[in-house]
């Protein structure tokens, strides 16, 4: 089974000024406040080790909180395990919400912070724009031909899109970037390699996209020690506290989301004041689409939810984001908006 490298890699060396608990060398490293409590080391079939501290009997004890929050109640999670925002530290950590008592573990190569994490009987089926990308086949071919097809609709290609996004993200440099709906991590890896951020969280709802992302990271020695974390989450329920994130990127994703307004509201909620949101998507029609045809273009085409330039700006504005700017080429739009 593919897991984050089992060897003991050194934890990341960079400091996290905003999140001291994320640094290995921080004086706020997780202290073992509940070390006197019994721990159950549950060895799962996947061979991952989940730490399940019994926090229920803690009294008058402080706990170290994490960047990640519970998707049920948005309380910062308590983390037990090595600190650091990297694959190995997260793989070896257990996360628990003190408020609702729900445990989250990285029993696969990613940390599962969906509300449905750990459910035994209930299975949720999402709309096609979400379910399609959960397939192992689509996840495998995504960076092996699928994504290249976007160029025909005006997408400039990953290198240029990355360069454009980096321009928008200048005010957020040095902070935490969440690559929402990262797919197989095409841009997450570029953001992590750039060294411009103290941490990059590659986040997607698709388990197979995240596994594919992990495979690509393992094949790239320059990324193994970088501050990158793989998180499974729903864009409509982002596992971060309000105002805790500096930058959110969502490449070619908005049209796949079940509700653009719920997603952008969540993105706005987690951004700190001055934080930047950069997204790209396919527009419902391009500048070459005849005016006579435009009113008849269905909003939902082939199971995707395509918006117009005006609708995207409207959603961002109604979710409290300002300074909306955009670049358009055929059906491709890259836009940016800021949290005031
Ligand atoms: C077209 S891919 C984009 C991948 C990458 N960001 C890029 O620029 O190529 C869209 C991604 O959105 C993800 N997605 C769809 N619904 C989602 C949801 N509800 N929450 C989080 N991610 C979702 C899919 O799993 C898929 O990986």
From TrEMBL:
CC annotations in GO: plastoglobule
Keywords: Chloroplast, Methyltransferase, Plastid, Transferase, Transit peptide
Cellular location(s): Plastid, Chloroplast, Plastoglobule
Domain Methyltransferase type: 178-278
Main localization of the protein described in the UniProt heading: plastid
Alphabetical GO biological process terms: methylation
Leader sequence residues: none
Gene Ontology molecular function terms on file: S-adenosylmethionine-dependent methyltransferase activity
Family: Belongs to the methyltransferase superfamily.
This protein's name: Uncharacterized methyltransferase At2g41040, chloroplastic
Organism the protein comes from: Herrania umbratica
Upper taxonomic lineage: Eukaryota, Viridiplantae, Streptophyta, Embryophyta, Tracheophyta
UniProt gene name: LOC110410733
């Amino acid at each position: 089974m593919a897991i984050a490298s089992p060897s003991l890699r050194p934890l990341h060396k960079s400091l996290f000024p905003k999140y001291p608990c994320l640094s290995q060398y921080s004086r706020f490293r997780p202290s073992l406040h509940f070390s006197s409590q019994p721990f159950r080391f549950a060895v799962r079939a996947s061979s991952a080790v989940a730490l399940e501290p019994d926090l229920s009997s803690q009294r008058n004890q402080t706990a170290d909180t994490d960047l990640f929050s519970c998707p049920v109640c948005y309380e910062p999670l308590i983390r037990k395990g090595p600190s650091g925002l990297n694959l190995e530290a997260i793989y070896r950590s257990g996360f628990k919400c003190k408020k609702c008592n729900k445990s989250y573990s990285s029993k696969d190569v990613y940390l599962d912070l969906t509300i449905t994490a750990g459910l035994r009987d209930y299975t949720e089926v999402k709309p096609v724009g979400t379910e399609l990308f959960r397939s192992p086949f689509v996840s495998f071919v995504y960076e092996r031909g699928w994504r290249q097809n976007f160029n025909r609709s005006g997408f400039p290609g990953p290198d240029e899109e990355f360069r454009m996004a980096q321009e928008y993200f200048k005010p957020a440099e040095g902070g935490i970037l969440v690559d929402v709906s990262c797919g197989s991590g095409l841009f997450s890896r570029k953001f992590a390699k750039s060294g411009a951020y103290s941490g990059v969280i590659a986040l997607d709802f698709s388990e197979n996209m995240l596994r594919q992302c992990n495979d690509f990271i393992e094949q790239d020695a320059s990324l193994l020690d970088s501050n990158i974390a793989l998180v499974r989450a729903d864009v409509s329920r982002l596992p971060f506290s309000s105002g805790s994130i500096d930058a959110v990127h969502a490449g070619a994703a908005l049209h796949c989301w079940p509700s653009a307004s719920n997603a952008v509201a969540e993105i706005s909620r987690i951004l700190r004041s001055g934080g930047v949101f950069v997204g790209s998507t396919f527009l419902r029609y391009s500048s070459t689409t005849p005016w006579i045809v435009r009113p008849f273009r269905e909003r939902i085409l082939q199971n995707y939810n395509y918006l117009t330039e005006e609708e995207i700006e409207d959603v961002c504005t109604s979710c409290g984001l300002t300074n909306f700017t955009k670049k358009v080429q055929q059906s491709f739009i890259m836009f940016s908006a800021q949290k005031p």
